[in-house]
Amino acid sequence: xxxxxxxRGVSLxxxxxxxxxxxxxxxxxxxxxxxxxxxxxxxxxxxxxAFAKLPRERVMAYRQKDYRFHDPMADYSLGIMLDVxxxxxxxxxxxxxxxxxxxxxxxxxxAEVEREPGMGAxxxxxxxxHAAAKLAEVRRRRALAxxxxxxxxxxxxxxxxxxxxERILSGDASIEGERNPIRVDAFVxxxxxxxxxxxxxxPPRAGEIHAWSDEYRCGHYRRALFRGxxxxxALGRGDTWRYLRTNHDDAFRAWxxxxxxxxxxxxxxxxxxxxxxxxxxxxxxxxxQNVFARYWTVPKRDDLKHVASLAPVFHQxxxxxxxxxxxxxxxxxxxxxxxxxxxxxxxxxxxxxxxxQIMSRGVPERQEDHANLTxxxxxxxxxxxxxxxxxxxxxxxxxxxxxxxYLSGGESFGPGLRRMAKNPDLKGNVPxx
Length: 433
Known about the structure:
By secondary structure, this protein is mainly alpha-helical. 58% of the residues lie in helices and 2% in strands. The chain has one domain (2-132, 170-431). The longest helix is centred in the N-terminal third of the chain and has 23 residues, at 72-94.
């Protein structure tokens, strides 16, 4: 759990240190915040003062029941959570007893929230996981399909080949590919083709990007540590599912849970999200992110039915490879790039890469790096195309939705296998070089 707090601190702390108020407050470029609040009728009053009187743990356990674009309570709760993140990091290092007390209070508050009508449990139920044996067999078959040709490329002697083969299939180690599997232009073309095919029944709408409410900006925001956009803050904490809900998150996750393991390709995933969002592209991307974020910190998250249904995209070899991690980062950056543009998303993507390097203690995580940068470019290009709308009159291209058109071919894991053979003690994520 300390690792989780440090990661959140790296992500959010870097934003603070670099002064990234990316499109957070367009009005601040026109006049000071005080003038804005006076014009809104708040004056020097704090519109969030009533929230400050609520129990702190109860505030931090808050989550939306449904889609609410204007939700000052959600803004206040998120703002408090962003500020307290740095305190959690400090406690984890210097005052573990305070951190444990904080966790107990939060668990109690969340248990109270779960008892409210229409609010599900914070942690997944056992039936939300795949049967271990079934999923293990699917992963083993995929690993073997990648491993067999890569072992030939590695040119290892029989005994060494058998040793690394066993380590890959046992989950003792996995290999992280070097190449970027995403063809950016083709991936954008795939998304646009899906929209084009669905547009007769669901005309595309750019959607309304979440922003801090006037009440929050004229209240707690004045003294908050975090000054970035609401979307950036929610993404940085992995809390979009709590503060930026859509009305179809639960049904979307249930649909994914009914699909076969590795059965949902990116084009199929986006098409289903687009349909459920009724053509609102922003809400479609947000719902995809919420499906990931809902349980991103739980143990064995790759075994969850809705996660295991997603077809592998990134170049990874091994039954123990982190399937969800790069996908979670990728779709999060697609969403952020869609909302904030290519420049902002590229900067945030690089900050995420620095954080990953710190978290992995220097072990390269190239696939996650590709996800962080590539996703933002795709999201920005998608937003421009949807805003212009000219693509709707382009001739249809059915081939654009084929995975082979927007994903590059697999790479040989021979270099990583040779590295494992030379270093039998290597475990975890091994770079493919």
